[in-house]
Amino acid sequence: GGQRQRVAMGRAIVRDPKVFLFDEPLSNLDAKLRVAMRAEIKALHQRLKTTTVYVTHDQIEAMTMADRIVVMHDGRVEQIGEPLELYDHPNNLFVAQFIGSPAMNIVNGTLRRANGAAYVEADGGVRWPVGHGAGSDGQAVAYGVRPEHLTLGAGADAVPGEIVVVEPMGAETELLVQAGAAQIVLMTHGRPAVNPGDKVQLNIDPAMVHVFDQKTGARVTA
Question: 67: left (phi > 0), else alpha (psi -120 to 50), else beta?
């Protein structure tokens, strides 16, 4: 497994190129081999110090291997930056949904500002907390929060929900929660004592929220 990729890399190395080009080299490998080959390619890059252009549709490969990522969509560059820069500050909805695994939760709603507070009002009457920033009252927006930035427990800005699915993964547990009209994925460490049908509260740090214009997909606040 992976021998064809290793041979191809060896042939390229002996030519002492100025630039390596990898065009989805791991696409035909199973998950375990992909992880192993990913580590080999990264170690090779660090040892040779040669510029490498790596084309992939797998955002995990991009995040774990790249010094800088160019995210493209329909032949257009959406954003260029370091992996964590794209993860923390996606320029638009496409980048936000592409970077990160599990993918960012997206809820469509209307931005509301009143009495110094801001929130997104979504179908089902749920209010999703938003930090202070750009965006106008009444604006149609897409509200984004990553599964790993949600926690269970009561809080001032907590969102009520109901457990739909519990997926234990060992050290982590993935939960699918119905919150109003939206189904939200939550990734938590450990093994929470919850079951399908349980009523829960979703805690959200407004500083970790992303808001995008519904029509253009452009980022409007953080």
Answer: alpha
Measured CA to CA, the distance from residue 96 to residue 109 in angstroms comes to: 17
Beta-carbon count within 10 A of 219 CB = 23
Distance, CA of 166 to CA of 164 (rounded, Å): 7
At the topology level, CATH places domain 105-221 in: OB fold (Dihydrolipoamide Acetyltransferase, E2P) (2.40.50)
Contact 187, 148 (CB under 8 A): yes
Q: Is 222 a residue whose pLDDT tops 60?
A: no
Instruction: Report the C-alpha gap between 86 and 43 in whole angstroms.
Output: 23
Q: Which two tokens stand for residue 48?
A: 């040779």
φ/ψ of 124, rounded to 5, equals: 90, 0
d(CA 120, CA 142): 9
Residue 40 has pLDDT above 80, yes or no: yes
Instruction: Note the pTM of the prediction, 2 decimals.
Output: 0.87
Neighbours of 149 (CB within 10 A): 19
- For residue 189, the surrounding DSSP H or E stretch is strand 182-189
How confident is the model over 198-204, as a mean pLDDT? 96
The pLDDT score that the predictor gives to residue 211 is 95
How would CATH label the architecture of 3-98? Answer: 3-Layer(aba) Sandwich (3.40)
- Residues of each domain in the chain carrying CATH 2.40.50.140: 105-221
pLDDT band at 17 (very low <50, low <70, confident <90, very high): confident
So what's the pLDDT on residue 121? Answer: 94
